[in-house]
Amino acid sequence: MPYRARFGRKMECVSLPPLSNFAICGGTHGNELTGVYILREMQKHNVEKVGSVSITTVLSNPRAVDACRRYTDRDLNRCFTDDLLSSPITESTPYELRRAQELNAHLGPKGSEEAVDLLCDMHNTTSNMGLCIIFNSADWLILHICKYLQSKITSMPVRALQMDLPLSEAFSVDSLGKHGFSFEIGPQPHGVLRADVFNTMKEAVDLTIEWLQQFNSGRTFEGGEVEAYTRWKTVHYPRDPTTDEITAAIHPQLQDNDFKLLQPGDPIFLSLSGETVKHEGDALYPVFVNECAYYEQKIAYHLTQKSTLTLPSINVKKD
């Protein structure tokens, strides 16, 4: 199961079991097209095994992909908590919850020794996030993959975003694997395929497979430091108390400035009547700024704290 990163001085080398099966998912949100088309390309070329690693490609939400919608009944990427995965299925059960339990049986079960060794779920955002690796707990293996990608990818920034949830409460597809993460890449409008975004995501997937090959072959990945952002709080749009409609837009000085330090007094909203709303409280880093899919929840952005994680060297455990 995942090993937690921590602060501190250089640690002893840690040996982990080989990673023999890698699941790559896309279309969890049916209108986020980069992952959908990467899967189609991999399936067209019958990419099922690369060296020591078996590859499983999964179109997570085929109904939503067919409709080019985020979801049909409810957000699939919020259906993987222990409580929802163990809930009884009835005639009124939403399609995405049924699908979550199918995926759990196929790729998990979550938290078990039978689960896939590594699971990557591919997402797009309308926010200016670059390439972001999102994970639930600070897993040394995932952070080493992030460190490797940061050293190889030059087309856009590569950052690590930690949700910091216990496994039982982790709600995303990637929580089904022994180790799991999501690629979040943008900006890209939903329902649109951009070549530059596609190419960077494809490069990230290929480099992850390359990393797995090197790890399984016995390479020691040296320890070091990785910057990580941890979700701290959610900021909602101002609303009209009578109609509940939003009354302001993201301020132009905040728009497209994901991961840029937000200081007290910095503009965050511009009201529809022209008034500026300023940030109050601690200096923090905004992410998912003005994400299109969050409008239904009236979420404007999340705020994160930045820290530096010290990683041990890792290599594969030998028999």
Automatic annotation (TrEMBL):
Domain Succinylglutamate desuccinylase/Aspartoacylase catalytic: 21-206
Record note on cofactor: Binds 1 zinc ion per subunit.
EC number: 3.5.1.114
Enzyme class: hydrolase
Compartment(s): Apical cell membrane; Cytoplasm
Domain called AstE/AspA barrel-sandwich hybrid: residue spans: 225-306
Cofactors (names): Zn(2+)
GO terms, molecular function: aminoacylase activity; hydrolase activity, acting on ester bonds; metal ion binding
Main location: membrane
Highest taxon in the source lineage: Eukaryota
Annotated Pfam families: AstE_AspA_cat (PF24827), AstE_AspA_hybrid (PF04952)
Active-site annotation: E184
Residues annotated as binding Zn(2+): H29, E32, H123
Reactions catalysed: an N-acetyl-L-cysteine-S-conjugate + H2O = an S-substituted L-cysteine + acetate; an N-acyl-aromatic L-alpha-amino acid + H2O = an aromatic L-alpha-amino acid + a carboxylate
Membrane topology recorded in Swiss-Prot or TrEMBL: Peripheral membrane protein
Keywords: Cell membrane, Cytoplasm, Hydrolase, Membrane, Metal-binding, Zinc
Family: Belongs to the AspA/AstE family. Aspartoacylase subfamily.
Protein name, UniProt field: N-acyl-aromatic-L-amino acid amidohydrolase
Gene that encodes the chain: LOC118312048
